[in-house]
Amino acid sequence: xxxxxxxxxxxxxxxxxxxxxxxxxxxxxxxxxxxxxxxxxxxxxxxxxxxxxxxxxxxxxxxxxxxxxxxxxxxxxxxxxxxxxxxxxxxxxxxxxxxxxxxxxxxxxxxxxxxxxxxx
Amino acid sequence: xxxxxxxxxxxxxxxxxxxxxxxxxxxxxxxxxxxxxxxxxxxxxxxxxxxxxxxxxxxxxxxxxxxxxxxxxxxxxxxxxxxxxxxxxxxxxxxxxxxxxxxxxxxxxxxxxxxxxxxxxxxxxxxxxxxxxxxxxxxxxxxxxxxxxxxxxxxxxxxxxxxxxxxxxxxxxxxxxxxxxxxxxxxxxxxxxxxxxxxxxxxxxxxxxxxxxxxxxxxxxxxxxxxxxxxxxxxxxxxxxxxxxxxxxxxxxxxxxxxxxxxxxxxxxxxxxxxxxxxx
Lengths: 120, 280
Hints:
The complex is a heterodimer. By secondary structure, chain A is mostly helical. Chain A has 5 helices and 2 strands; from the N terminus they run αααββαα. Chain A has a two-stranded antiparallel ribbon with strand order 1-2. The longest helix of chain A has 27 residues, at 76-102. Chain A is elongated, with a radius of gyration of 17 Å. The relative contact order of chain A is 0.12. By secondary structure, chain B is α/β, with parallel strands linked by helices. Chain B has 2 domains: 2-205, Rossmann fold (3-Layer(aba) Sandwich), CATH 3.40.50.300; 212-277, no CATH class. Helix content of chain B is 31%, strand content 26%. Chain B is built from 10 helices and 13 strands. Chain B has helices spanning 42-49, 72-75, 92-99, 108-117, 133-146, 163-176, 190-193, 214-220, 258-267, 269-277, and strands spanning 2-9, 19-26, 31-35, 57-62, 65-66, 78-81, 151-155, 182-186, 199-204, 207-213, 221-225, 234-238, 241-247. In chain B, helix 9 (258-267) crosses helix 10. Chains A and B meet through helix 2 and helix 3 of A and helix 6, helix 8 and strand 11 of B.
């Protein structure tokens, strides 16, 4: 088991919807599948998908129009980036830094690696 | 939707009661997973719920009506897919024409859609006795879902299904589910169905050891590698370190590991009981 397997399913679904928004498959003001539609498509129970939508709504990534369903927020992309940054800082960064420490990568080396990566 | 009150049942008086003072409530809008070891009484409970066995004490009510009375309005709203069954030597078309009239909400359109999900084609003239075991199960399950009964009970539905059809089965459940329906799936194959369940019921020795939503499990138990200072309820040693079920810390949410939850509940029922009855 690695920490990816360890992530709650509703958050993994939120990540995938976020990916679709960032890649443009889902566009701002575009319609998001209904809870039941998505549940059937990805073979997950509807309460889990409902929880994903609640999570995305709280973060301003999607919103509801009464009686019409869910839509992508106009500023979804910014909100996804902010939400991912928060998630990264809370959990994954800690794991990543632990890995760096375990193999003895110094802060200076890390800085060099990251600069090189950005310049690629 | 279903209320089971103080149920008592035994197949044989000398062996004692399989169920004694057993109570359980099942609500619409949920897909329930009924888990228990061999001999825990899962199938018996299912037969008692569907009026196929008669309890020696207590009652099973569906929407207030005792299932023992087998009222048409009750029986036309319950469908049972047993673990093993025989299909008659008929064409699928004939089978449907004989059996569908018992179910007022049966939909031919749904039947075709579910057969398609199972990649069974739409040949209504296919002879049921010419089908393999797995194909029979698929056709019968497609019919079960197409009856659109509000209660659908399945005993080990994924037994005998090949690898692709386990995913197709999950699609059937998630696309056939609705807020006014209740599904109960009894199984040992927890990995096949973990993601489609809303609610877990674990039974043992005539007792409900755990009856809770998957969301509640996620809020209260974390399934992960153990760390120093953890007070795990269940530990699984592996060559790469210990995994376990530990009380979830504030905001800690992991993917629910049903197998571990089941083992934790059977090995340490008191700790699980305390954790799930604590106020939160």
